[in-house]
């Protein structure tokens, strides 16, 4: 199965294609160059417009006095609600400190304490201060800056901006050997072309735009996961969509990317209160306002439902140096008429992060030879049912390094794309808002058999709105449709509440569901799923 697109009008070649310019893609590309492999780095917008630069909180790593990878692992497993792959977590927390040191060696500058040491803070789910941050609340921007500077200095990395990866190219032997791209630009690479390589790494970030309101940028339409699905790759854990509990509420009619209020603000003392001024997280979890994100999000949802209000409040008035500590958040609040030094901030949950994605092993290999996935696009199993705060940037650093090492050690000779024809499809861009609203209403923070079946029925109706006019908007909405269907199917199958998956009709976790739902989509457009035991 592939997207309807024009015939490729140009060809480019490299040893490895890396799709995505966030922390995962950039780390992979730079490490591949250490093995003297040529890299084609493809990015959907400008190279600095991925999700990484929006990360406010920071990077979690056991670097502080008395902290250990084992303590970091314990917190990660607790947040993952029994569904983490223990081996993947071991890799993440033990290789994480060195990955961060390497990032610092590449030029990333993190905030320092008064003594000159790297300042470490705490976020939800962490029992120790182990979060590195930069510019207060601009960590992602600094990580992106440092990695991009290294990429720009390397002549062995060719960058194609404003390019959407449409589908993978397969050899007759069933190995991925490139991708088709659509480039918006002038010259020989305007329009559809093909990029050939000996290996392809998908690092396209998240799929937050599946929902009406999200913290993700507009480019986060899950293109990489959808691309892998159409190629026949397995995906896993996609029902576990993390809703960030504290997103600046402005108006329910506003869709798309919304301003994030990092939980690092709560780490500095901010408190969640309801319309009556009551601190509703007290007694709900031992860590109170700093409980794991799924716990906080569901409690906010309950408060909103009880009071029939579109938001709760975050009281930040006790943080004396708010503009200096959180300059980005302060600017967003002021822009929306709120002074967090004097007023409480209205907040509500919005889609933030997909703990699932393309199923990979500990070296980032997917179920298709030659195809790798990294970062939010991938499902390593390290996040389980709910990602621990600030483990996402760390995952990109650690597994980007592992992928590049595996490719360098096992890269094969280039092969030619198969000439066999494949079924194609394309949906109309007009269905986008209906799809997003259906997902937010029926497959959001709280789900049920009834709400999910209604959402699935809506999606099936939308599938009839096909298009014969290939364009970026049509390709994106076709990807969103595929991902929305996968999310709803998995959420229907999982008869329990666990991590960031909450079912009102199955409100507790069940030992029968310490399993991973793995899905596939075949060349005829049929879905299948299987259950796999979690490696505890």
Can you offer a commentary on this structure?
This protein folds into 3 domains: 11-240 and 355-410, 3-Layer(bba) Sandwich (FAD/NAD(P)-binding domain), CATH 3.50.50; 247-349, Flavocytochrome C3, Chain A, domain 1 (Alpha-Beta Complex); 426-508, Methane Monooxygenase Hydroxylase, Chain G, domain 1 (Up-down Bundle), CATH 1.20.58. The two termini are 35 Å apart. By secondary structure, it is α/β, with parallel strands linked by helices. Helix 1 (23-33) packs parallel to helix 10 (391-410), helix 3 (86-105) crosses helix 10 and helix 11 runs antiparallel to helix 12 (449-462). It is globular, with a radius of gyration of 22 Å. It has 13 helices and 25 strands. The chain has helices spanning 23-33, 69-79, 86-105, 139-152, 223-231, 264-267, 293-307, 322-325, 327-335, 391-410, 432-442, 449-462, 472-493, and strands spanning 2-3, 11-13, 16-19, 39-42, 59-60, 120-121, 131-132, 157-160, 163-170, 176-183, 191-196, 199-202, 213-214, 235-236, 241-248, 256-257, 271-273, 312-315, 345-354, 357-359, 371-373, 378-379, 424-425, 515-521, 527-533.
